[in-house]
Amino acid sequence: MQQQYEGYKDLADCLKSASALLDLEPKSQLHQGIITICNHLVNPSFRIAVFGPFNHGKSTLLNAILGNRTLPIDLIPTTGASITVKYGSDVRTRIMLVDGTEISRSGTEVLQQFAILDGNRQMRKDVASVEVFCPHPFLETGVELLDLPGTNDREEQDNLVREQLLSADLVIQLLDVRKLMTLSERENLRDWLLDRGIKTVIFVANFMNLLEPDEQKQVQNRLRFVAESFRSELPPGFSNLYRVDALPALRARLKGDVAAANSSGLAAFETALQNIVGILQPNRGSVRLPRVEAIASQIQLLLKAKIDPIAIEIKSFDDKENSKIEIKQKAANLIYKGFTTSMGELRDWLALPKLLTKYQADAAVALAENKFKAWQTNTLKKDLTQLQFAVVKWLYQAYEFFQEERPQDLLIPFPSEPQVILPSKPSNTDDLSEPSSIAVGSGIGWLLGGPVGAAVVGSISYLLNKNIQTQDEQLAKESYHQEVAKLCITAIEDYLSCFSSQGLSILNEYEQKAEKVICFELSQEPLEITNKRENLQQLQNGFNQLLQELEKVKILSNHQSYKEIPKYSNINRKYSLQPKRVQTSPKKDTGVKQEQENPVKNTGTRVEYVSPPPQPKASPSSRPEEVEAKFRDWELNEEIARMKAEMRSPKACRQTSPSFKTGKQQNATQSNKAPNQPKNQTEKDKITRAYSILGLQANASLAEVKLAYRTLVKKWHPDLFVNQPQLLKQAQEKMHLLNEAYTILSDK
């Protein structure tokens, strides 16, 4: 039992803590009820309260049970405070005032001063509690009797009675048979008792002796109906209706007239009362918990009324912030993907074997022809600039998107122009009969004049193509122009080697700096939201703790525990990507998989199209993979543009259609909303024709439109037909139709 009451103490503390979160008015009925029931939960005594309107004989009935005039009685409402009657070795009274003063007197005469209504029928404001101690054997068993003020007299008294009823384990509702069950009494049954979990109720009918025999029979039938309609939770075998004529019973007790006490109904009632208490008292927790359940339900509803609006507001804030962060993360990933791809292409281009294969021959010839400077500017620098631009443009995308550190330009300088020191000329410099000498033109070399210069150029091509410079010199007699050609080749190799080494080193440093650009700071949470988040956490913790304590005492609830709120750091944090650096060119990606895994969600707002970087003019060597690379680059740009629009308007974004190199860029839109209906037959015909151009059935989905468009673009891109004039014209016309169809269906 002791362990059980320790559990009730935890429950009482939890109820008080939860109610404190509600900021209730101290004088409110709910606040007073919570305090009362919490104090009663840990009260070891069994309390019996006598309840009813004024002048129903409540104090008289209690005096009859006690066997003396312990409590004040009169024909007018007298009880001005709730009086608790406890066991004591002698009759005495203890009164506690609001200011903490204790008044203790022998007997009960002091009640006339502190526990009855004043001349204006007002309760005293300075009285906190009134206790009477009496040497009665029933009280010695741990029972307390509670004499309550009469109801239906003053609102202040009614509030006190409502509060004190929660602290009663058994309620005796006294009925006046002369005006049986008034409207107020019926309302009290429901509002003051049943709705608050108070169901251990006994009805006692008073003043039956004042009725004629015929009237008594009629009233008895009505009383039985009242008792049966109220489902009291009493031990099995006990009635919830008894007749006691209170005043005759008191007189009989004062005179010691046992027969008169029996005829008044007092003896039968006392016997039943003692037996009921004997059964309920050991398990009084089962009597008190329904009152706890009723008041806890009110607390939970009020807590939810405070929790849910705050939770909705914070969730809305978190959803918006998470949406922005998610967009930024996707953008950062896309930008980094484009950046690393471009970096991989530039790094691959800077690899010495690639440079030698692509440029050594032309560079050596340019060196021999005294045109190296022009070659460096028109060929090497042009190619480098294009690759550098492809890298840097991603960082400017990141800067525009995240507004972090401004990117630095990627500067890869060229080494000094190679110098060649000529060997001494042999006497037969005009001899061109050697079979390895292959002239490739009539230009005049910068080192040698006339045919010898042309022979040097020819030897460069021959030596590089045949790769005979690595043969044993002893096995091949070299001519002078071959020797000069070797010097040019070696000079260019040294030049490109220096260029490659220096360029790759700069590239590695630049990649590290790029991480400061492709990143973003998580915004600081507003103080108002932080405070609300803390308040919400306190409210939810109180709610959850109350649920747990109720479960411990087997009180079930219709509510579910709130999940813990994710903690939010109020310190700015930086989000940055730290993937592995790309060392070689990434594998080609058609972009189809990305589209399927990350479908674009558009709701109607036009996105500003981000055009791809300038592409080199198509050459006869254009291949499908180059068109694929262009398409992939466009898709990355398009996705980033969509995300920028989402940042401006998270609820809506639109997507653009590509134009590549086929004409003016055209905007297209996608929408998750219901498509607009065509206004006229002309528009309907345009839509039908657009589906036909893309090879689709009418009303195909937007995803199908996009997939068909992508497939046809890769088939008819004009760059694939630059060497076939007739097909090129056809491809350009086809591309125009595809773009037009895509725009119509995207806008639909």
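^ that was protein a. below is b, sequence first then the tokens
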Amino acid sequence: MALNPVVAEVTARITERSRATRADYLRRMDAARDSGAGRAKLSCANWAHAFAGQTIADKLTAMDGSKPNVGVVTAYNDMLSAHQPFERFPEVIRKAVREVGATAQVAGGTPAMCDGVTQGRPGMELSLFSRDAIAMATGVALTHDAFDAAMMLGVCDKIVPGLFMGALAFGHLPVVFAPAGPMPSGIPNAEKARVRAEYAQGLVDRTTLLASEIGSYHSPGTCTFYGTANSNQMMMELGGLHLPSTAFVHPETGLRDALTAAAAKRAVELARSGESRMADVVSEKSIVNMIVALLATGGSTNHAIHLVAMARAAGVLIDWTDMDQLSSVTPLLARVYPNGSADVNAFQAAGGVAFVARELAQAGNIHTDVVTVMGQGIEAYFQEPSLIDGELVWRDGVAESLDRDILRPASDPFDREGGLRLVQGDLGRAVIKISAVKPENRIVEAPAAVFETQEDALQAFKDGKLNRDVVLVLRFQGPKANGMPELHSLSPALSVLQDKGFKVAFVTDGRMSGASGKTPAAIHVSPEALAGGPLAHVKDGDIIRLDAETGVLTTVGVSDLTARPLAVRSTANAHGSSWGYGRELFGAFRQVVTTAEEGATVCFAFPVSPGGHTDTLPHPNFVDRTVDA
């Protein structure tokens, strides 16, 4: 089918907007490629250092001078269940590449923090910044310039975006991402949500809550809800950086190890052929495909930030208007918790990524003429793997969904639009995820209750002060203020208020987790309050209208919001968000970080100018995007 005209229009606009930055990026990648293979540029002493700790067999291979060397960047630690399986991956990779006459080395490791552990804790204020730290660590790992291809081992929230950004700095190489897969299903998600809501109301004790959570998060592998981690995997598939349908294979299976070995061998093949370098795989078209994949499956709102930074690493400039317009023509094909009751294992069983890829391609919602690690075209991603007599075999994915309550064709979607919308008005620009919000809850007009910390908001909930129609405004949560933490700890309380029949909405310059669901939440409000954004002018009792249907976020009855004096963050909260739990190490990040719509990143800043200040690279579309409702 012909490409959807809106998809074509948005892609053309992104291409034109990115013309200068994309050309500069490709120029640098071409220069790196043309300078020759890494191993050929190193002196004998350099090369000897690079292999001093390797086996005799690998040293002999390396001395040949013509055999590819694969650099592995791993986010392994054994506190993250999703990353624990990576402990064994390097040896699987080494063995696989030896079979095809190559070598592989762990080039370096990156930090990998768990948002599930730090939710509601001070450490969450480092979560978003950890993405850029991971990008930098990836750059450090690969800067040895001893590699002909690279493999990225990562799964979770900030880790994959960070690996993606860092690897693109070495986009002259082919780069293959190898995931670990989800844990088996635990207790039903509806039961987990019920216990959380009861605990928020004081109806069950902590022991009951802990037993429920352990029943959900119980083994190696990714958490099984469709949050940021699993959204990452969907995007890596449709972005052409995985082997097909590898995202949701359990870690402790023979198939997972076979896929990891196959990914390593594919990296060697690409190094030898010079094809599918990452700079060519990640293009304006593949970025659009990644956005559409996210929207079609109701993926995480965190990617309204991450994707901007990820694309920028390849010289591609996107914004929330692009995402909003793509969402308007993207069919919602999946219902996975928190946008439904099923988990990613049920999604995969119903047809999974192969089904989604084929449906989007046949409906004209994604570009099929893209470069992937499998070669030219997206069609390879309509297949899925299996092990037959110990051999990895690829076959076509299912032609029809095996469970239409979880997965539907583009001809009969759950919704004609995707799961993400832009809302804007005199309060700024924000995004809202509506795929889990019932239509009757998408328009809220109610008095504001304004807070600076989620702890204060939760205390007001516990004290019964929010038992009414209310728009909870939480400000000074942006990247400059405190690193833009996720505020998922508020979700159970907001859900309880909504279930009581109140009209409830949430407005913040912070983030919400990819696990957040049924309460309407206008998040990532830009510009943020600490930078003088409109939220700093809001007062308790102001009537706020959030209309996700028409894209409005505004005050009602306030003639000139900005004529009011700016609220000043309390000294205690300002100090608390900059010191302790490692936060004092990231002061420079808070000073130079870009806005949420520019990716909330520190990775693309110019050097200090003659005037003595640091300017971030201007985005042609970011002048003053605040409009009157």
